[in-house]
Design brief:
The protein is of the alpha/beta class. It contains 7 helices and 10 strands.
Length: about 260
């Protein structure tokens, strides 16, 4: 089995593959204060609940945008699973040509998603990932990573609104039935959610135009379903895209090692 880990600024997602099947997955709050032992205990407990033996894990791959936590996860996997994890970064084979001005600036999570989207849906394609930030990434027909767009995430945007406006309350991120709110809470929810729907649709349509008018659009991440069910320009919602990309990268680098 392969243990795949994606460490984001807000959440860390962990999955386990048995061959091509994702047999378990969890979403945890990213906590830079946790030690290797605490991470190991948490993961062992989750695996025990799912009845997955510890010794069934024979490989691991990590993508992370939080360097200090990357080291903690690496140490935990070495000490508790007795494995050397593959960490997505410089020196790791990706199989795609990155056309960014400085390829090292592209977050590993964006590369992981791009690889999975191109392998599943082909190119040209656009990936929209709803995390701490919302990222839009474009690949051409040949699978070359062209670049993209980074926006404040849905949660960050809503938190900024009630943090800076003293009379506005904190609201749940849900989509109201109507865009014309009948009270302050509904009005804020309508503005945040429907405004974000409009933003995503506009950016995707502009990116499609720059790609020549045609591209398959796939959405993933925390709020993909909330937003993209109402975005006509999005073709697919795939919550497992990052897991699949991590597994593909593991297989690519394992193949390179064995040659």
């Amino acid at each position: 089995m392969i243990l795949v880990i994606d460490v984001g600024n807000t959440n860390t997602v962990i999955g386990i593959f048995q061959q091509d099947t994702l047999v378990a997955h969890w979403r945890l709050a990213t906590n830079p204060m946790l030690s290797q032992d605490e991470l190991g205990l948490n993961l062992f407990t989750l695996m025990e609940i799912k009845k997955i033996p510890i010794d069934s894990i024979d490989a691991s791959v990590i993508s992370s945008v939080v360097p200090t936590i990357t080291q903690t996860f690496q140490g935990m996997i070495r000490n508790y699973f007795h494995l050397e994890p593959i960490v997505i970064g410089p020196g790791v084979k990706t199989g795609i040509n990155i056309k960014y001005d400085n390829p090292k600036e592209v977050g590993s999570d964006r590369i992981v998603n791009a690889i999975a989207a191109y392998r599943i849906y082909g190119g040209p394609c656009i990936v929209v990932d709803f995390g701490t930030a919302t990222t839009f990434d474009a690949l051409n027909e040949q699978g070359h990573y062209l670049g993209g767009c980074i926006c404040p995430g849905l949660k960050i945007s809503s938190e900024a609104l009630f943090a800076r406006a003293s009379k506005l309350p904190k609201v749940d991120l849900v989509k109201p039935a109507k865009i014309i709110g009948k009270n302050t809470e509904q009005s804020m929810q309508a503005g945040i959610v429907y405004g974000y729907i409009g933003q995503v649709d506009y950016i995707v349509r502009r990116m499609k135009k720059e790609l020549g008018g045609k591209a398959t659009v796939v959405a993933t991440g925390d709020y993909a379903a909330l937003i993209c069910n109402d975005v006509p320009s999005v073709d697919h919602i795939n919550p497992d895209l990052t897991f699949i990309g991590l597994k593909l990268l593991y297989e690519l680098n394992q193949k390179e090692t064995n040659q």
